[in-house]
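Journal club side-thread
Mid-discussion, someone asked how the predicted structure for our own chain would compare to the paper's figures. Pasting it here so we can look after the session.
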Amino acid sequence: MKGLTHFMSGVALSTFLQAPVSMCWEERSFILVLGGLFGIMPDTLDFKVGQFFSKVDIEVECDPNEPDPQKMAEQIGMAMEKAYETGKLVKCQLYPMRLGVDLWRQYVIKFDGETNEVVVIINEIVTTSQKPYAGTAPKENRIGKYRVKCKMLETHGRPSVVDIMSGPQYGFKRAGDRVEVEFLPWHRTWSHSYVLGFILALPVWLIASLVTSWSIGWLYGLVAFLGFAIHITEDLTGHMGGSLLWPFLKERTNGLCLFKASNPHANFSIDYASLCIIVWNINRLGPPHRVFHLPAPFYFFATLIIPLGIYFSIAKVFGKKGKKQKVGVISAEDALAADAAAKNEEMRYELDDIAVSD
């Protein structure tokens, strides 16, 4: 989920508590905002702290001037084989290919489970806004492939496009008779733990108690924990999941794979549902006299179910059909198709030559 979605969810969950809502009305407290801030904290810890402490084992050579996709594919594939042979986690880091102030060489990494190959495709030159310059893809030496000696288990589900700012990190580890590919092995691990959320809520409780009073200080800690916990719970609907009980269980639990974190419809639905919940709870628990008096079923049917039903109906009728792919992935797939067609044509000519000679 997006940061705004986690923020809204943290605030919405906190509004179910009578005391914090009353404090906002009577004391002009910002305690509900605390739930939203802790709602975005797990990802903040990951991207502002965690990724910089993730030790890299292999750095793939990404030369922007003379990119060698074959060498890159071999380095990644050998890292996978090393992980399988040693049984240890091997982290592999890739970097962007910067050509100038506003120019980058785009490339795509694909883990093909059907052919058991690591594939690297060099794409067009793009701007920092990720706009490609047509005709700038290499004419030769564009595709590199390496067939891994062990079977692979790819959990990310799609090719990775690398172009601007930073490159991805992969973690390879042995899982039975296969080597598992982990996209961003530093993401959603220790930071996405209910245990860590409880630990971080303790100093909030202590500081709030010292500033206000011990009788209400615990509410700040509770709101902080609820915001942190709802973030982790929402992430379980995606693919990565999280290390829910770190440090007691460090393995990353798989998500339910219901939708991707970037899914705009899912993010909008949760944002809107959170807004409806916030309005309902503040009206119900906040002011001495309610602004409106409506039964809960009628309120949520009228303000939530019907609008979302209309929204999804419009999206289904006028939205684009099928899965939307990034421009870089489409370009890479076209290159692979052209390469396969060229090889098939070459093979056909060779067979014709053999038939003539016979």
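Post-session note: The chain has two domains: 3-49+190-318, 55-183.
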